[in-house]
Design brief:
The chain has 334 residues and is an alpha/beta fold. It has a 6-stranded parallel sheet, sandwiched between helices. A 6-stranded mixed sheet has the order 7-6-8-9-10-12, with helices on both faces. Helix 2 packs across helix 3 and helix 8 runs parallel beside helix 9.
Length: 334
């Protein structure tokens, strides 16, 4: 008689193998009714757990994995540095995995499963602002817990920032400075974070009796200085130009925008006020110094690491969400 596997149980129960695995391991995301059903089927089919797999699943690596996309982006490098600093204060080791995110998440899903199933780490921290509510199956299938940074999801522990309030703060500041035509630079990605920032710009202008001219929105795919330079060329070619530009795509893009505007002969903030997002280390070294929204990266890193370690120790604790307020750091560019 062939040995019964979790795939056999899954077929009979009409559920996924991941659901069977989690039910047999008392995962908190599986309902008690489903757990009882799966366990009864396992007993009926004479399922015997693989001893070596059980040993692997229960073994501790004392290692935290960080999954992050495109380390060339300064915000991602700064995030890694902040998390590493916090992990070094614990008894855990640290391993970095770089993912190149795409809209259908195939590559990231494969990486999740590879890291989780091989039990290389005890938990994962992922900076994943493209994850959506409907992607919950990704975490359901993981063997180890995960904390997500820069996202707000109901099914996984999250550390997020107040994106909506940050945009409102920036737009109101520019309005107080006398600007009525505000341009926006955003990357054309599936990120709901950028959509939240952009919608808040639109809503804040509407509250002030104004509107965001669709021609004053520039968006391309890449988070890069080159994208910022293309945005500068775009605004330069407009007949009806904005007087201020909010680069919600981040300081990395804002640096390219300012450099190209200056090459084109514009004065900052005289002709264009410019505000970035993230307040990266180089913002105060640009000329003029960049006004930007500051993310409290070290506080966020500390919260993420603490949250993950708590989840490792207590897998059944309620899902946790922590949001951080952002500050507008005013410098010379606006």
């Amino acid at each position: 008689m062939e040995k019964v596997t979790i795939n056999d149980i899954a077929k009979v129960a009409n559920v996924t193998a991941a659901t069977v695995s989690m039910a047999l391991n008392n995962h908190p995301r599986i309902s008690d009714a489903t757990k009882r059903k799966i366990r009864a089927l396992a007993k009926e089919l004479h399922y015997v757990p693989n001893a070596s797999a059980r040993s692997l699943a229960s073994a501790k690596t004392h290692t935290i994995g960080l999954i992050i996309s495109d380390m060339a982006e300064p915000i991602n490098a700064s995030t890694v540095r902040a998390i590493l600093k916090k992990i070094q204060q614990t008894h855990y080791k640290f391993v970095l995995y770089e993912s190149y995110e795409n809209p259908d998440w195939d590559w990231s899903k494969d990486l999740y499963h590879q890291v989780s199933r091989e039990k290389r780490v005890d938990g994962i921290i992922h900076k994943a602002f493209n994850l959506r509510e409907q992607d919950s199956a990704i975490v359901d299938s993981l063997v180890v817990p995960m904390v997500v940074i820069e996202n707000a999801l109901s099914w996984v522990d999250c550390v997020d920032i107040e994106n909506k309030e940050a945009s409102r703060l920036t737009v109101n500041y520019l309005l107080k400075k006398g600007h009525r035509k505000i341009g926006v630079v955003v990357c054309n990605s599936p990120s709901k974070v950028l959509k939240i920032r952009l919608k808040s710009v639109t809503d804040t202008l509407k509250d002030a009796g104004l509107s965001l001219d669709p021609q004053h929105i520039f968006q391309e795919l890449l988070f890069s200085p080159e994208n910022g330079a293309r945005a500068a060329d775009y605004f330069h070619d407009l007949i009806d130009k904005p007087t201020a530009i909010f680069v919600i795509a981040g300081d990395y893009v804002a640096a390219g925008l300012m450099s190209r505007l200056i090459e084109l002969g514009y004065q900052i903030p005289g002709d264009f006020a410019v505000v970035g997002f993230d307040d990266l280390w180089f913002a105060s070294y640009l000329n003029p110094k960049l006004t930007s929204i500051r993310q409290p990266l070290e506080d966020m890193a500390e919260a993420a690491v603490d949250m993950l370690i708590a989840r490792i120790k207590n897998p059944e604790k309620p899902v946790e969400m922590k949001k951080f307020k952002l500050n507008l750091i005013i410098r010379q560019s606006a």
